[in-house]
Amino acid sequence: KNNKIDNVGGGITADLIHVDSPLSPFYDPSLTRFQRVTDSLRHSLLRHRSIRSNDLKSSSLTSPAPEASLAPVSGYYLMKIQLGNPPIDLLGIADTGSDLTWTQCAPCSDCYKQKTPIFDPKKSKTYDTVSCKSQECQSLRYEHPSCDNATDGCHYELTYAGGSYTSGDLATETLTFDQNLSFPKVAFGCGHHNYGDNLGTSSGIVGLGGGPVSIIRQLKKYYSIDAKISYCLPPPNSNVSSKINFGSNAVVSGPKVMSTPLVKREHDTFHYVTFDGISIGNNKLSFKSKKTVTVEEGNMFIDTGSTYTFLSDQFYFKFLFALEKALNGTPTANPEGGFEVCYEKPVNGKFNSPTITSHFRGGVDLVLSPEGIFVEANKGVVCLAILPSYSTDLLVFGNSQMINYLIGIDLENQKVDFLPTNDCTNPN
């Protein structure tokens, strides 16, 4: 164990910031907020279609596990970490829907443009490739491992939603978080062939899923850091950065904390919870799947890489019918398309929506932030940021609906904690 880790009781913290925030190094002032919304919608749809199509294939015993799916250009959160010795800064997409952490690496025969310098393994004293027979290589599943017979080096290959792609060497390296806490020999992907607009200008992906190669699982296995994280997502356009916490720092406490069980399913990458329904004001709509009269456990997963929430089509249109009855707005079409339901924004600039509450198993009632329910998709047009899944088997809880909650994903105790807060800089 690293002595520095002992000094903080096994807790780790890293910076977390929305890519569209003015504080983000990737912030592009030339983009309008409407362009950002259009981007985030387009890529959320691509992401969901990719996961859904692969999830439906999973009923076949011979089919591959679902491909990881990538966060959009707009609408995602960046996590700041350091890699190597001497360390260089990485700004990767924080993704609870994938496992492998990877970054672009030199030499790079195919690379997209990223803001931070590309990692050069030859300049690091602690970089080491991984053999095909190693435990790390054997633990790769969705990353399509292969072996270089000449060097015995382990290779990975990942294809993402929307056509993005990365391949390269599986390697180990020193990972450094806030407070200069360093962890040697963490497995990651060193990508020499990478492309796709969906990556924006990030360094790559930070895998926060539940599979064996995720950072959460590696820190637990090799450094006895409790397998739990907590994060609080500030609104996209805020001048607020936040933190993501690991281990003993991932504390979600207080009398207002609500907890729902994590549900184990075949694909352990995703963090599954049980969605019980939604309320519009005092009108509660209970969720039932088509197949049974009871709610299927683990019917929704928590996805920081998706901007929007997806509900099954049958329940979605039931929800929509009730919502439209409760609204006094004037329906309109979004000129850019994509969203199912849009309204004219009143001249006074304020669109009044009834209180929307999501219900999860265990008595968890999440009052959703108004700015995470209706987004201004075009000038004078607000659209519902909840979309139909067109699959009864795959519901997604997106990051827009997590705004202003401190959320703890606790793999040790198999639960997810929620604490409402108005201040992500000091949520507890």
Description of the molecule:
The protein is an alpha+beta fold and 428 residues long. The protein is 13% helix and 33% strand. It is built from 5 helices and 28 strands.
> What class would the helix/strand composition place it in?
alpha+beta
Record field, number of beta strands: 28
| Count of helical regions | 5
State the major sheet. Answer: 6 strands, mixed, barrel
Report the radius of gyration as a whole number of Å: 21 Å
Mean pLDDT level: 80
Strand order of the largest sheet: 2-3-10-4-9-8
- How large is the share of residues in beta strands? 25-35%
The separation of the N and C termini measures 29 Å
Helicity range? 10-25%
Shape: globular
Give unreliable regions as ranges: 1-9, 52-73
Strand-helix topology:
Layout: H1 3-7, E1 11-18, H2 33-57, E2 77-83, E3 88-95, E4 102-104, E5 128-129, H3 135-138, E6 146-148, E7 153-159, E8 165-176, E9 182-195, E10 204-207, H4 215-223, E11 228-232, E12 242-247, E13 258-261, E14 272-273, E15 275-280, E16 283-286, E17 300-302, E18 309-311, H5 313-326, E19 331-332, E20 342-344, E21 356-360, E22 364-367, E23 374-378, E24 381-384, E25 386-388, E26 395-397, E27 405-410, E28 415-420
Parallel strand pairs: 3-10, 4-9, 17-26, 18-25
Antiparallel strand pairs: 1-2, 1-12, 2-3, 2-8, 4-10, 5-8, 6-7, 7-8, 8-9, 11-12, 11-27, 13-28, 14-17, 15-16, 15-21, 19-20, 20-24, 21-22, 23-24, 27-28
